[in-house]
Structures are given as structure tokens and as C-alpha cells.
UniProtKB/TrEMBL annotation:
GO terms for molecular function: 3-methyl-2-oxobutanoate hydroxymethyltransferase activity; magnesium ion binding. Its EC number is 2.1.2.11. The gene is panB. Catalyzes the reversible reaction in which hydroxymethyl group from 5,10-methylenetetrahydrofolate is transferred onto alpha-ketoisovalerate to form ketopantoate. This is 3-methyl-2-oxobutanoate hydroxymethyltransferase. It comes from Rhodoplanes serenus. Belongs to the PanB family. It is found in: Cytoplasm.
């Protein structure tokens, strides 16, 4: 069976084998992730990773669509989920539908993701009823950095659990097919996972979640600063730097290009 996974396929994984998800923003990295993961997130974290921004707030719909298209071209099997960037969906459910429809039509992706719990429930229902699968995102919502003040784990005091649980339940009841739970105290993430009927995909959350997601460059060791919840599965930063240094040295000493890397004249007669 060679077809691409769908939002309903991911939804059906609740309580089963955990869902493996990573971000990708490029065709070639998408291809690598596609061979091993169930879902690929074209996250608005591309603002930091690709563009050197401090936060995700300046990321635009055009940036998301361009990278979403690249990831769709580079993958065949995984469900591709594209993040809705700040300012493209919060004003009204109609604004959200028009923005999300552009993403789905112009990239061919199978789902979109949007941050927010109770406040976004009506919008999530509006999109899902009109044919756009929505992945929710609760707990730490980085697009709200300017009102939050800092990127801090949520629910580390059990007195604060109520609104976070209410957010998760609202997203599930609105018809989302899954939800990201970001930077939430472990027992709360586990409790939410038991309480909602859709898969939870943790990042800085709990091993009890129905799946996990990380930013690819963070887990590969390509990002200079990473949150505590990132586990490094690779150390590509130093490996790339060694390759770049060797190249620059060979250029300067004329060791590169060698005879294998240039075109001699064709042999005549
Ligand atoms: O933008 C992103 O990469 C994300 C994940 C961290 C969940 O939203
Ligand atoms: Na994001």
C-alpha cells in the first residue's frame, strides 16, 4: 500500500503504536523523514531555523506555503501538516478558513495545525466541517510569546491545570484529529492523553502521549540553542563545520578541484 497517510489514519492511532513526527522544511530532509516517520510538520519554527528570527511571530503565510510545497514534493508516505502562522487565522473563523484553504490548495498538504485551545474551538469546528483537517496545539503556544513574556513550561503547579485541560478538551470536542501538547508538566500531559479521544503528540510533554514531535534541526544538533526537552540524536553541526573547513582549505591550496572534478577534452579519433 503506497498511499499517503491521512488525518483519519493518524486519528485512528489513538492508544496504539506511538506516532513518530518530525519537522521538515526542505524537499531533501522531508524525504529522509518520510522514510521513517508517520507525519511531517512544516512548523513555523522555520522562522528561527531557516530565517534566523527570534520568534515565530513574523512568519508569513507565503513562507509556510513555499516550504509546505517543497516538503510535499520531497515526501510520499507521511501525512504533511502545515502550521498556520501568527496573524493568518486568529481574527475570525472565516479568516482562518480562507488562509487554511490557501495552504491546502497551494501545497496539497493533508492537514493544517493551529495554536490555541478554548479560544480556537469554534474556528477548528468551522474548518473541520468544511473539509480541512486540523491538528490542535495546546500548552506552550509560542506565537503568544508577547503576552506570555517567556517560553516556560506550563502546568508545573497543579493549581494551573484547569485551563490547560479545558483547552485540550475543547480542541478534541471541536473535531481536531490530533493535538500537539508542548512544554506541559509530565503528569498533566499524561492525564490529558487519558482524557481526550484523539491522539496527543508531545513535545516536552510525556512518554505517555500518543506520539512525539521534535524540530529536526534541534535533534540533529544543528541548532545553537535548544530547550531542555530536546534529545540530540545527532551531532551534525560539528560534522558540517569540519567539511566546510576542509573545503575552504583545499580551495586555498588548489587541492580542489582535483582531476576527478574537472572536464578534460574529449579524446579525438
Ligand atoms: O513549529 C514547530 O516546529 C512546532 C513544533 C515545535 C510542535 O510547532
Ligand atoms: Na509551530
Amino acid at each position: 500500500d503506497d498511499r499517503r497517510l491521512t488525518a483519519p489514519d493518524i486519528r485512528a492511532r489513538k492508544g496504539g503504536t506511538p506516532i513518530a513526527m518530525l519537522t521538515a522544511y526542505h524537499a531533501h530532509t522531508a524525504g529522509l523523514v518520510d522514510r521513517h516517520c508517520d507525519a511531517i510538520l512544516v512548523g513555523d519554527s522555520l522562522g528561527m531555523v531557516m530565517h534566523g528570527l527570534e520568534t515565530t511571530v513574523p512568519v508569513t503565510l507565503d513562507m509556510m506555503i513555499l516550504q509546505g510545497l517543497a516538503v510535499m514534493r520531497g515526501s510520499r508516505r507521511a501525512l504533511v501538516v502545515v502550521d498556520m502562522p501568527f496573524g493568518s487565522y486568529e481574527a475570525s473563523k472565516e479568516q482562518a478558513f480562507l488562509s487554511a484553504a490557501r495552504v491546502v490548495k497551494e501545497t496539497g498538504c493533508g492537514a493544517i495545525k493551529m495554536e490555541g485551545g478554548q479560544r480556537m474551538a469554534e474556528t477548528i469546528a468551522f474548518l473541520v466541517q468544511r473539509g480541512i483537517p486540523v491538528m490542535g496545539h495546546v500548552g506552550l503556544t509560542p506565537q503568544s510569546i508577547n503576552t506570555l513574556g517567556s517560553f516556560r513550561a506550563q502546568g508545573r503547579d497543579a493549581a494551573d491545570w484547569g485551563p490547560i485541560e479545558a483547552d485540550a478538551k475543547a480542541v478534541a470536542e471541536a473535531g481536531a484529529f490530533a493535538m500537539v501538547i508542548e512544554a506541559v508538566a509530565e503528569p498533566l500531559a499524561a492525564k490529558i492523553t487519558r482524557e481526550v479521544r484523539i491522539p496527543t503528540i508531545g513535545i516536552g510533554a510525556s512518554a505517555a502521549c500518543d506520539g512525539q514531535v521534535l524540530v529536526l534541526e534541534d535533534m540533529l544538533g544543528l541548532s545553537p540553542r535548544v530547550p531542555k526537552f530536546v534529545k540530540r540524536y545527532g551531532d551534525l553541526g560539528p560534522a558540517i563545520e569540519r567539511a566546510v573547513a576542509a573545503y575552504a582549505e583545499e580551495v586555498r591550496t588548489r587541492a580542489f578541484p582535483g582531476t576527478d572534478n574537472v572536464y578534460p577534452l574529449k579524446k579525438s579519433g
